[in-house]
Predict the 3D structure of the following.
Amino acid sequence: CPVIGPRPYIQGWPWQWPSTPSLAFSTVYGASNDLRNCIPSLHTSWALLLYWHTRGTHLATRIFGALFLVFTLLATLGLGQHYIFDLVIAVPFSVAVRSAFARKIPWSADPKRYGFAFGVSVALTWLILVRAAPNLLLAAPWLVRVLTLLSVAGGWWFELGLYREEERLAADPSGLPRSASEYPGAIGPAKGSLAG
């Protein structure tokens, strides 16, 4: 989306914050020449993908990845380059990217298909709501909270499914994908149940 963060519009950012009612959900044309890089935050996506890919590495690498992610989140908000929405939308967007480019997992595997579908559908839902229905988001703060929780928790859940599938494929030479019901905590009938 061709929008920019709050920094150009708020005198004294980040030391002075505007009142919430004074903020409007509209694209400002003719604004300063600041970078238009908001939705989703690719800064956050890169840091998140880097952190996810430090699994199985040395502890120092994991700590570096975690710190890089935390400081990237703080910097993008603190420097006024992004809104919090941008960081939230980056999680499902990153899951979609991770799913699409998980080369070791075939598209026939449920974690890849479901992770990709989740990431694309949730990121697009956010984009449509922010662009076409900002008044709905302002009028229904419960909806914002539910979508934020769904975006972040769901994104981590689906990414964990991708990681587990990669680990399983590395340990299983047949490389056959499992169905969703074979995963712990999966939705649907368990293997060997009366319904399965």
Summary: Helices lie at 42-52, 59-78, 84-100, 110-132, 134-139, 141-171. The longest helix spans residues 141-171.
